[in-house]
């Protein structure tokens, strides 16, 4: 008779169990900090245009370099988490990102600002994919959609809360530097909360990944046609979202609206709808399937984009609400589907999804600026419409998990 010396793996957590809430809340703080830091310069794009005499497309590079760096760093960070553990990688990433965020606030020139923003994005690469993998490890698959939705809700709160703080500080102090420094300090407070709340992994088992093994994992996921389509969904919907929020500020500051900068800054409060939407969309997908939720989300965002072509500020804001709801419905559903689909190498699969996600942010934000420079806001909305149509084409052949 032989006995195994391997410890028993704890059962996955289900909603309502004692360990479920600390996991969800801890990842909520991680999501908040990630989006607050990553997109901190988005509401400052008009100020950067004025300060450096650059075009809106060039100013948008302060966002694009960060998201591109996240895309580059996600797979290596995912591999490190397989060796060192999920929580240590996430914690180290947040510490580095906060320090770099403070440094960016005092950068003397635009070139150095871009370098520091790129390094900040590289540091933040340790959060998104590893957080998704942590949830996939710890949470029962039947409850993963709701938990992933709460994680993405943290992204939405970081998105609107961070941008409102940045906008308010910039308006009150007259300095984009004080605005960047303030959001970095707020993120430091969230880092402390994350470290105190998030428990150590219960079900994670180290599995060192060499370069060859990592490439084989990447290849295996990319050979899966369903996984390729899910990666495309992440790329397309994030391109839509970043493109809309990058350039709607220019629309509202200019004619015919000419709204005050502080009022325009509060447009990012619309991210709040994502807090409720992401969790509910995840639970809805758990009940009715992911495919119909993704198609419905794309359709809703398209209606919102068309509404933003009107000359009425209330209709423009309402359209932005619909587009925001569509994004925050699609992202958690697609990311949870990736977690379910990946029977092995979950951190790598999550890394691939989020790599595509942040490539979409960089490419969508930059190309949207090109469209804006060529033909103004209507061209940007047309570009958004093309991305949403492609999303439906990609999702249509899939079967819900």
Outline of the structure:
With 401 residues, the chain is an all-alpha fold. Helix content is 78%, strand content 0%. Helix 5 packs antiparallel against helix 9.
Description of the structure:
With 401 residues, the protein is mostly helical. The protein has one domain (20-196, 211-395): MFS general substrate transporter like domains (Growth Hormone, Chain: A), CATH 1.20.1250. It is 78% helix and 0% strand. It has helices at 20-38, 45-52, 56-59, 61-84, 86-105, 110-124, 128-138, 144-173, 176-197, 211-223, 225-253, 261-265, 272-288, 290-307, 313-341, 346-395. Helix 4 (61-84) packs across helix 7 (128-138), helix 5 (86-105) packs antiparallel against helix 7 and helix 11 packs antiparallel against helix 15.
